[in-house]
Amino acid sequence: MKKSLLWITILVLSISMLAVFSLAGCKTTTTATTAAAETTAAAAAKVFTILFMPGVADPFYFTMEKGIQKKVDELGGSVKLLVAEYPKSWGPEAQVPILEAATAKGGIDLILIAPTSTDALVAPLKKLYDQGIAIITVDTYLGDGDYSKDSDYSFPLSYIGTDNKLGGQKVAENLAKMLNSKGKVYLMNTNPDTSSVVDRGKGFSEGIAKFPDMTLVGTDYCMDVQQKAQELATAALQKNPDIAGIFGVNLFSSQGSYQAVVNAGLTGAVKIASWDATQDLINALKEGKVDMILAQKPAEIGFLGVEWGYKYLKDKAEVPKKVIPGFEFFTKENVDDPNMAQFIYSK
Description:
Elements: H1 2-45, E1 48-53, H2 59-74, E2 79-83, H3 92-103, E3 110-113, H4 122-130, E4 134-138, E5 158-160, H5 164-178, E6 183-189, H6 195-209, E7 214-221, H7 226-239, E8 243-248, H8 251-263, E9 271-275, H9 279-286, E10 292-295, H10 298-315, E11 322-323, E12 328-330
Parallel strand pairs: 1-2, 1-3, 3-4, 4-5, 5-11, 6-7, 6-8, 8-9, 9-10
Antiparallel strand pairs: 10-12
């Protein structure tokens, strides 16, 4: 009898202990599930702060900001946008102090930036990255732009911008058509340490080299100063009076170049290929001072920057190392086409 009672007591205790452990396990599982759900909900509810750091005050970046704002508006209250002061000149000496001032107070989750130097912006941006701020470069990139390989500049999530080398090649092809695939051409570049314009120059040089009866007689750098571009182009025309075409890689180089041609009385005789569809260049095209304009898509670049940045911040989505919108060409044949108006930059 006592032995039976003992076994009954042991059985009851075992069942009780098993029930306690089962309840504890359920509580642990429930707690973990709840914590995970709360973390997901917190991420979804968090307002992310994005800083836009433009390269310089010009219509290209004004238009990019509008694309950024459009996507921010679509996301409702999920993103807070900060726009840094627009540098008045191009270069790290103007951009870095503004970047440092804009990030000094902290609280920034992502920076969309057009680095004004392939090398000089690496250290300032790496410092911010090490503080936990995600980086996406727009329009221009760091190093050689290949963020997929391990390097001291591969920390940005992505480069979002035009395939500038391809654009330069297409400019060369179109200019060659205008010149019947023969003659001398000249390249007005801006900065030798800025990825976008360097690639445009490389693409143009490679493109012209495909035409045996065409010669690239020279390349100059105006450092993003229109007056200097005009002076350099004037000197080039005096040195090579039979130049048949000039490619200006951006707004300032194009405007300076076509003004030199106008002043020399060579409008129409010297074809001008330009880059960036500002209203001023569109007007020059209509007036016959410019013959072709490559239009980038800055609003789309900005829109995509916010779109991919938000996906990363909210869901830790994998961002493509390069996101490349296309480009369009304005000529006298299509400049008045209503469908092309969307590609003209804003002020």
